[in-house]
UniProtKB/TrEMBL annotation:
It is found in: Cell membrane; Membrane. It comes from Winogradskyella immobilis. Residues 96-217 form the MotA/TolQ/ExbB proton channel domain. It comes from the Bacteria. The keyword Lipid metabolism does not apply. The chain crosses the membrane at residues 36-56, 136-160, 180-202. It is a multi-pass membrane protein. The lineage of its organism: Bacteria, Pseudomonadati, Bacteroidota, Flavobacteriia, Flavobacteriales. Signal peptide: none annotated. This is MotA/TolQ/ExbB proton channel family protein. Belongs to the exbB/tolQ family. InterPro entries: ExbB/TolQ_transport (IPR050790), MotA_ExbB_proton_chnl (IPR002898). Keywords: Cell membrane, Membrane, Protein transport, Transmembrane, Transmembrane helix, Transport. Its main location: membrane.
Amino acid sequence: MILQSNIQEATETLVDGESTEKTLSIIELISSGGTAGMVIIAILFVLLVIATYIYFERLFAIKAASKVDSNFMNQIKDHVSNGKVDSAQMLCAQVNSPVSRLINKGITRIGKPLEDINTAIENAGRLEVYGLEKNVSVLATISGAAPMIGFLGTVIGMILSIFEIANSGGQIDIKLLADGLYTAMTTTVGGLIVGIIGYVAYNHLVVKTNKVVHQMEANSVEFLDHLNEPI
């Protein structure tokens, strides 16, 4: 009976210990960081929203730019071979993609030296690439700046903690000390999360853009090779 009673008391103690276990939500974690921590987290949240918007806006734009009919170049070559330059330009206008705009630039130079046509296509290609990479550099900036902003919050939090210790007069207020540590930890985590998201999004867009650039180069070379073929 004594053993059973001891087991029951230990079980009740364990249950009481579990019931009093403290939990901390994300909102409580942020609010516990004090004013400085909440300001840093707010800045990081704005950067996250900007990075998310740029990523999806560019992703959809790049996907749209990469859609080219597999029969497009065959039709262009047929029109050019038959001397139907106007029909070829009309087809390019209907497709309205980076590839079609490059080919259209080359079509408008037909009759000039091949080197001039190649130069015109290259210049147009640079403009197309610039358009595809619009605002992508902002993602790179966010991926680098967000962790530094988080570390700024860490430094502020540590300064607050040290300030409280220095002015405690031997009586350290654990709550005030914890607020400074919360600021340090939450902003660091927030900055790293935003930085990682921005870094991954930037590199994904770079890969997608490179695929479109390769597609433009391949079609341009095919067009120039067709013009260079002997009649």
